[in-house]
Amino acid sequence: MYVGSNRYSKYRNIGPALLSEEGHMITKAKKWIRRELAVFDFLNPSSPDFGRRERRATNAEYLLEYIVAILKSIDLKGSAGQADELLKNYLGRENARLFLHELESWLRSPFERLKEWDQATQYAEPK
């Protein structure tokens, strides 16, 4: 669920400039991206689905660096959906949207440890 940016929540708005200025934000992003990319079997060399998808990349580390480049250059919430478009060829449109939404939420948060993030994150009940 969305948490507003303010001094009480310690959530803040992010964008390419902030990520470039604050080096620890890239480290924070990579921590989350590595964990989340592990969900996709076609990126896991020990999976029978490894490399079978018709995707441009089958290497998780390549995709991680590609996503970091997107973060450094494009606003994830851009109205044109540029970040979604760039990532859809790798993860599929719906997965890309959800992935980028969750990534932005993680980066906006005051949490530095994934365990804390997991414990605090709340999701709306499905309708």
TrEMBL record:
Broad EC category: transferase
Keyword terms, alphabetized: Transcription, Transcription regulation, Transferase
Catalytic reaction(s) noted: S-ubiquitinyl-[E2 ubiquitin-conjugating enzyme]-L-cysteine + [acceptor protein]-L-lysine = [E2 ubiquitin-conjugating enzyme]-L-cysteine + N(6)-ubiquitinyl-[acceptor protein]-L-lysine
EC assignment: 2.3.2.27
PANTHER family per the UniProt record, alphabetical: E3 UBIQUITIN-PROTEIN LIGASE TOPORS (PTHR46077), TOP1 BINDING ARGININE_SERINE RICH PROTEIN, E3 UBIQUITIN LIGASE (PTHR46077:SF1)
Protein name: RING-type E3 ubiquitin transferase
Biological source species: Lithohypha guttulata
